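Quick one:
INPUT:
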């Protein structure tokens, strides 16, 4: 489950760590992109995730949607629902009608659809790669490299819209040969949320089995 969450669960690091070695052109674009998302009270995104490993001849596609507000999130993907209120995390598995409850530990996470907007601020070096196009839209492509050489991820590549500085997609390259591509298919800013959005309501899941791992 932690492996699943490391890819798609949500944690937002707000620690700033600029470095003189960073590419100033990339820094400007990333700062504009990050400010755009952090100014929103909440947002919802639909996305697709593609896992590829050419050596193992693997290619898998998954789709999901996520609602985010600060460090809180609600993720639906592949028959699972992951809900986090910033302190507690509920992982519901539809096929088993079971929910696991655990303490939320953001340090266990790697990269996610919300973390990507602030990922560059801590523990990564970044540089501008080139201009490109995605779905006919002009984008700036920026590459991030972790400062920790023990990180299982050795490279992250972001495609940022030149028009409005939204993230169109990103790729995560891992040392084991796996490459994950995330593409945003629909984005809705400032969606209405309240406390119930980011909590698990047992009453809505008839007969659910609760396993408390805290």
């Amino acid at each position: 489950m932690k492996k699943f969450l490391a890819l798609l669960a949500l944690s937002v690091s707000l620690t700033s760590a600029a470095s003189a070695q960073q590419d100033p052109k990339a820094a400007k674009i990333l700062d504009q992109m990050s400010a755009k998302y952090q100014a929103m009270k909440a947002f919802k995104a639909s996305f697709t995730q593609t896992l590829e490993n050419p050596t193992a001849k693997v290619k898998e596609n998954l789709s999901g949607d996520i609602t985010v507000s600060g460090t809180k999130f609600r993720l639906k993907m592949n028959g699972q629902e992951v809900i986090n209120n910033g302190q507690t995390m509920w992982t519901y598995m539809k096929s088993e009608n079971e929910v696991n409850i655990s303490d939320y530990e953001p340090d266990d996470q790697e990269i996610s659809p919300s973390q990507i907007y602030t990922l560059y601020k801590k523990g990564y070096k970044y540089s501008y790669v080139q201009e490109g196009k995605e779905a006919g839209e002009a984008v700036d492509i920026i590459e991030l490299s972790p400062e920790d050489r023990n990180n299982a991820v050795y490279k992250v590549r972001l495609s940022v819209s030149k028009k409005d500085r939204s993230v169109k997609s990103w790729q995560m390259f891992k040392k084991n040969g796996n490459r994950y591509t995330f593409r945003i298919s629909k984005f809705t800013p400032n969606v209405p949320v309240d406390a119930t959005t980011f909590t698990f309501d047992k009453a809505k899941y008839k007969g659910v089995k609760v396993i408390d791992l805290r």
